[in-house]
Amino acid sequence: MTVVISTGRAASAPSGADRPARPFASELRLDAFASHRRTVIPLGPLTLLAGGSGSGKSTALRGYEALARLAAGDPLEDVFPDPAAWVPEGAGADGQGRRGFRLGCTVEGPVGPVRLDLAVQAEPSLRIVGERLTDCGGEELLSTALRDPRRSSVQAAWYTAGTVPVTRAPFPDDRLGTALLPLRVAGTTDGQLRVLAAAEQVVVALRSAFVCDPQPRRMRAPVPVGEGRLTSCCGNLADVLHRTHSRCAQRHARLVATADAGCAGPVTGLTAERLEDGTVRALTGRGPGRGTPLGRLGDGELRYLAFALVLLTGPHVLVADPAAEVPSAMQALTVLADGLDRGLDSRQTGELLALAASICANGHMRLLGTVGEGAAAAARGTAGATVVDLAR
User: Fold this and answer.
1) What is the spatial distance between Cα 45 and Cα 13, in angstroms, rounded to a whole number?
2) Between helices 177-184 and 57-71, what is the axis angle to 10°?
3) Three-state secondary structure string covering the chain
4) Could you report the per-residue pLDDT of 215-240, keeping only the tens digit for each?
5) How far apart are CA 162 and CA 164, in angstroms?
6) pTM higher than 0.90 for the full model?
């Protein structure tokens, strides 16, 4: 796998002297993961993956999503319901009949860069067989290893720096050990505090993720009134517009301006009306006394509008799972968008890229998406965007 990186003009780089207050993943690593072999992907505030069909763009997004779900506490079998599908085709088994893959990332934050590396066995049974958490100095803070294949556990060891330098205990082999550390480490020694800080930095950065996959066919019909939090498929967009129209006037006005810039014909407003059956229907204002149901927009317009809504609303209006115990000001939400430019024309793509670059520059939101060559070319000229070309 060849990786070529290009950045938009005048892209800003964080100062090495200042550690960011909001943890974020700065690198994704994939090894023997579907089509990826020792792939290292740098992650900026706005990162777009480009490349031909089969180059592994969507697979890379699935890798990041898997780490995010594991950090949120999801069991391994839920994250990888078909684990063999992620093992490279033709990959042989070892002497014990085992096949698997590796995932990893680097997370920047208040404690400096922290590396997480994970080895997953897909066959003959799905389990985590090795995990390492390493700090910026290369010191191993947590390691796990499979000692007895007959047991559904791994042997974990974490740094203590107390009377006993290392603490050992069994961990389940279907959960991310890093996510379990806050429940297992007392935090009574300097070493334990270092381990906790590193683990919490990784968990906060990874679990603050939202998979955005707008599906126009689900966005056209009226929907029941709910809590006003946007789902991954954006099928309840009308309910969310009903909320943002009345509660987030400034952001809603910017959303209307973005819709006007990317949709056919003028857009002077985005509202939602309650119907007799209790559902709400989204409307597009077209001028004084004129409006059309949002469902009449084209697929590309609906996808464009959904992505713009995600970027402009933030985590409080999304069905995401940030760390509840950490203030929102200390978290950066990562939006995962497969096919960011799918169905969009060049004007819509340009407007959406400019909006994403503007929002991501503020630090509270990041975006990792896949795009076609046309959008990649446009992104190379967008300040703050990083384009990663994946070649087979």
Assistant:
1) 10
2) 20
3) CEEEEEECCCCCCCCCCCCCCCCEEEEEEEECECCECCEEEECCCEEEEECCCCCCHHHHHHHHHHHHHHHCCCCHHHHCCCHHHHCCCCCCCCCCCCEEEEEEEEEECCCCCEEEEEEEEEECCCEEEEEEEECCCCCEEEEEECCCCCCCEEEEEEECCCCCCEEEEEEECCCCHHHHHHHHCCCCCHHHHHHHHHHHHHHHHHHCEEECCCCHHHHCCCEECCCCCECCCCCCHHHHHHHHHHHCHHHHHHHHHHHHHHCCCCCCEEEEEECCCCEEEEEEEEECCEEEEHHHCCHHHHHHHHHHHHHHHCHHHECCCCCCCCCHHHCCEEEEECCCCCCCCHHHHHHHHHHHHHHHCCCCEEEEEECCHHHHHHHCCCCCEEEEEEEC
4) 999 999 999 998 888 999 999 999 99
5) 5
6) yes
Q: Is the pLDDT of residue 52 over 80?
A: yes
pLDDT tens string 185-213: 888 888 899 999 999 999 999 999 999 99
Number of C-beta neighbours around residue 26 at 10 A: 17
Compute the distance between CA of residue 78 and CA of residue 66 in angstroms, rounded to an integer. 10
**Burial group, residue 163, by CB count within 10 angstroms (0-12, 13-18, 19+):** exposed
Beta pairing partners, 134:
115, 140
Least confident of 57-61, 176-180, 314-318: 314-318
The two tokens of residue 331 are 């978290």
* Lowest mean per-residue pLDDT among 24-38, 132-146, 156-170, 202-216: 156-170
Q: What are phi and psi of 112, to 5 degrees?
A: 95, 180
Q: Judge whether 204 and 323 are in contact, CB under 8 Å.
A: yes
What length is written for the chain? 392
pLDDT at res. 231: 93
